[in-house]
Amino acid sequence: MGAPEGQFTGCPSSTCIFNQFRERVQVQAQQIVVLGTGGTIAGRAQRAADELGYRAGEIGVEQLLEGLPALEGVTVVAEQLAQIDSKDMAFELWRELAARCRHWIEQPQVQGIVITHGTDTLEETAWFLHRVLAPRKPIVLVSAMRPATALSPDGPQNLAEAFTVVRTAGASGVLAVCAGAVHGAADVRKVHPYRVDAFSSGDAGALAYVEAGAVRHVRAWAATIPSHELFDRLQRTAQWPWVEIVHSHAGADGRVVDALASAGVQGLVVAGTGNGSVHAALEQALLRARDAGVRVVRSSRCLEGPVIPLAKEALPCTPLTPAKARVDLLLDLLA
User: Fold this and answer.
1) Where does the Asparaginase/glutaminase C-terminal domain lie (predicted)?
2) What pLDDT sits at residue 68?
3) Residue 227 annotated as binding site
């Protein structure tokens, strides 16, 4: 059942810790798993006052968890999967992350998972995991906008609030916690390059807020229907599909689309203006690519609001942001 105070819990090929608490406490049967991938939350700067000129992913997940009051009375297992800047997120790390989440989420004693992640591609990882796993237990991505060495780092508070969400009855699906707000994977997006409250859920709004150590719901948790088919297909994939994002803008033409199609691109997401509208010259190139076998989907570069489909449009649209639409198209092409 539980382990004595200070004893390490076991897990395959990973660094695992059991947090040593300030007081001796009875170990609970429930576990929370923390998967570390790096990011600003694990960043280190040469000077404490430097909140931008730092190196991401320098500090291990065990050190990030040390002394966190939210962990008192909780059995924690930690694995360091990577220590990267999330701008460099790669498909193979996504595959490994999905596999470790699947392994742990199926353990009956595991209440949920916390993933430390950089902010730049957090919304893509969140949507990928939600599509692949659709977990009934919570998987919470947590990040920071200031490095761990900052004068006032935001990572510890965000981590504590991520644990609060995992321990909340009924929590499910893939979520993101930042600056007291709980966002769902389908809506979360980064909207500011350095402000601590850098994430939004657009006009859908946050799912909940963490206030005074408790979760206040605004909307219901996202519905989840776990399916092994997509996960199993992902594990069998030797080569990921090639999908790119192109933007519609004033003066756009179709040369970049023609070049990508000639080079063998398999899918294109166009970040359109307004309600997914596309410059006429660019649209003609996209139609040529579609007719040549390239999957094409329209999204919008607007920060809020989904694209509303119109019967007259020649290209299909999605309500997702361009980055998430690309994830969807990747997974669809895996079929």
Assistant:
1) 243-331
2) 86
3) no
